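Final report, Chapter 2: Outcomes

The project's central promise was a pipeline that accepts a single protein chain and returns its three-dimensional structure in a standardized token representation, suitable for archiving and comparison. That pipeline is now operational. To close this chapter, we reproduce one record exactly as it appears in the project archive, with the input sequence first and the structure output second.
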Amino acid sequence: MELIQPVAWSSDGAGVRILDQRQLPAREVYRDLRSIDDVCDAIRTLAVRGAPAIGIAGAMGLTLALNAGDTESARTRVALAAERIRATRPTAVNLGWALDRMLSVAARSADEALLHGELRDEGTRILDEDRDMCRRIGERGAALIADGARVLTHCNAGALATGGMGTALAAIYVAVEQGKRVEVYVDETRPLLQGSRLTAWELTRAGIPTTVLVDSAAATLMRSGRIDLCIVGADRIAANGDVANKIGTFALAIVSRHHGVPFYVAAPTSTFDPSTATGDEIVIEQRSPDEVRCGFGAPTAPMDAAVFNPAFDMTPAALITAIVSDQAVHHPPFDFSHRR
């Protein structure tokens, strides 16, 4: 399978190249980020998205703090830039995790003149490690997918969201590599349609049979007996196994439980947050009302109507059949208090 690369170093090595996911599926457009402002804007506006991918983009983008000839020391510029990038998306733990790794490198550096190269090397390691983690998740997750399985997924947890082949979609890709026949049903994932715009684009590009459905049709599909399992990604996993993921995941988990359909979560170890005891402690990002009122240009609600637009919801551990990481398939009761 030809891997999509949503985040990479630019060809001249002076910036970070991203696949602008706001343009998909109509156009495949790549942009080079050249400043911390560019990095923050790309993450905040979802030009680059998915918990692992924004962690990678934030880490690699931090090197751009050293391109400006400011009067502050290199370490100070890096620290200030890290806080700006960290504030762009508060829910996904991977972003803070990756930035903290970069800050640790800066703190250990013996020579500020060498810091740029040291940070660049660490950013590359984070990218390479994520690629390897995705493969291991895929291999473990594929064991849960039988030949002929009909799989339902939500949002995008594929190559577009990571440095490798994805998390939830990695399991599907590896299952197909193994010769299994897999049919995938993709929730649109309102309001920004990451399922229909991104996941369906990825899967059809890979030649995998794909059906798009509106989010509210998932319950009817399960009731008809046409879904064998659900698998989704995660933006943060609390110590007790509660999972923050794209809004709509919680409802899907409830419907899965009602119909006896296994509900799996796939995520790398960088998504586990042992410092967060339960999902109730996870900060849920609230996004612009205009994403609902007129997200793709045409008005879809009165402009003076109030809007509730959380980017994520929290799925209790009790609704999750298993969590697939790069280290193991974890079954309840979950205890990730020492994970990472």
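Archive annotation: Residues 285 and 311 are 6 Å apart (CA to CA).
This record, like all others produced under the grant, will remain available to the consortium after the project formally closes.
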